[in-house]
Amino acid sequence: MGPQGNPETAGIRNVGRTVVFARPAEAELASRADWPDEALMLAIASRDELAFAVLYDRYVDLVYSASFRILADAGLAEDTSQDVFVRLWRRPEAFIADRGRFLSWLMSVTRNRAVDELRARGRRRRREGGPLGEPDEAAEPLFATHPPDPQSTAELHEEQLAVRTALRDLPGEQKTALELAYFGGFTQQEIAARLHEPLGTVKTRIRLGMQKLRKSLEVRG
Amino acid sequence: MTGEHITQEQADEFAIGSLEPASEHAVTVHLAECPACRDIVRDSERLAARFAMSSPLRRPPSHLKDRVLAAAGIRRPGPLRRVAGYARTAAGIAAVFVAVAAFTGMVWMRGEMSGLRDDDERLQRKIDEALSQEVEIAALTRKLDDQEKEAARLADAATGDQDLIVALLSNNTRIADVVPAAEDSTSIGRLVWDGDQKRVWFVASDLPQRPAGETYQLWVNSGGKYYSLGTFAADPDGFARHQTIVPEGITSYDTAVVTIERAGGSPIRQGPTVFLVYDLSRLKD
Ligand SMILES: [Zn+2]
């Protein structure tokens, strides 16, 4: 990881480098772009604003996209994204205490925050189409020409592709059950009522859906 | 549910968000006390996170970043501050130093410092450099806040930090993050445990002073038993720095807490918990 090829400049100098104020900010920013999420979070716990900026650039699209999918409203998705990142800055130790993989934690915070918002407003999806609407590939407003962190952006795209492929192999009713729960914010009883299916059927679909997803993502890595 | 472990199916339902509120609450309560089930749920949450990524990627409007930075209290534009928020008070500098060293150390420093301890001359040079950095920050603080006396005091104090710096450099030192128990607390701190020097430091900022008759007390849990590591107070700036030796008979600890006890300290842990200690080193793969 990172720029520590030369042991002479490592060690205590790094302590000074982070604290002393003379360094140009761009160099600092560039060095942090290589850092893994967990290292950035530790730096954020030490109030490192550059680390926060790097983490924001790395994941804002993902956080915003998931919020938008749940809330179907650009303004609310912005509010939710802001809330998620501000919390992350204010209480990074919540993640440190959790000790999981950073991205899982971030997405789980995002989803819960967006669903809270959805429930607070007492409204459900307004999108036309199916109960959730299929992700509309054509309308996808994709990246501008200059993504801030090309390497992790590429990784995200790769991961996205793997997940979408796995979802394509899922029976439609299982996929719908998972989407209603995760993106729609419905509990299994609410899903059952909505689909006019017995609760047991819905539970089975969710269970099988998760199992299949797990298996096919494991196979693909 | 508190007693019952969580099944894979429940973990999946929890992660995908399909549980009814009561069941969800029961799972949350159980997870708080069961590491084994936390591992199962973490795996499910990882899967759910990947599911979340199936959404089409949308780019938020560019003004969102400004909004977020402003809401977080981070100024923009211009060079972002590093740890200036803490460095502005002289009392926070040692905390910053420990925090930064803790972080940097976890990520790459300590691995590369391996062997250096055997080389006295080089080690001494590194220590001198570190100390001069700290004095440099003190000078900067003086410029910022015109706290000349405070800066001078800090420069003096820095030379007394030699043991702590040696501890930070040691491969046999554990540096743990200290998390406030109260949601609204802004305290930040570190527990530094040096197995070689048999010493322990506890440093924290933003810690309220206790009223007369009360004190902070540091405890470590080793093998299921709590050992007192002594009492300490916060200074008027809310800064606390407690240094002590590792108690006889223990070589490491599992967890640590800071509690509020009656003045003079308590023989057993009984007061309310102020801090919990998490070991940052476990985040390292
Ligand atoms: Zn359990």
Write the topology of this structure.
The complex is a heterodimer of chains A (221) and B (285).
Chain A: H1 12-19, H2 25-33, H3 37-45, H4 49-71, H5 74-90, H6 93-98, H7 102-120, H8 150-168, H9 172-182, H10 188-195, H11 199-220
Helix pairs in contact in A: 2-4, 3-4, 4-5, 4-7, 5-7, 8-11, 9-11, 10-11
Chain B: H1 8-16, H2 21-33, H3 35-52, H4 63-71, H5 84-87, H6 90-112, H7 120-145, H8 148-159, H9 162-169, E1 173-180, E2 188-194, E3 199-205, E4 214-222, E5 225-232, E6 240-245, E7 255-262, E8 273-279
Antiparallel strand pairs in B: 1-2, 1-8, 2-3, 3-6, 4-5, 4-7, 7-8
Helix pairs in contact in B: 1-3, 2-3, 6-7, 7-8
Bound molecules: zinc ion (ZN).
Residues 5-6, 30, 34, 36-37 of chain B line the site of zinc ion.
CATH architecture verdict of the largest domain in chain A: Orthogonal Bundle
Largest sheet of chain A: none
Helix content of chain B: 40-55%
Residue share in β-strands of chain A = under 5%
The general outline of chain B is globular
Structural class of chain B: alpha+beta
Instruction: Compute the number of structural domains of chain A.
Output: 2
Compute the number of strand runs of chain B: 8
Mean pLDDT of chain A: 75
CATH overall fold name of the largest domain in chain B: Immunoglobulin-like
| SS field, number of helical segments of chain A | 11
What is the total number of structural domains of chain B? Answer: 3
CATH superfamily of the largest domain in chain A: RNA polymerase sigma factor, region 2, helix turn helix motif
Compute the gyration radius of chain A: what is it?
20 Å
CATH topology of the largest domain in chain A: Rna Polymerase Sigma Factor, Chain: A
CATH class of the largest domain in chain B: Mainly Beta
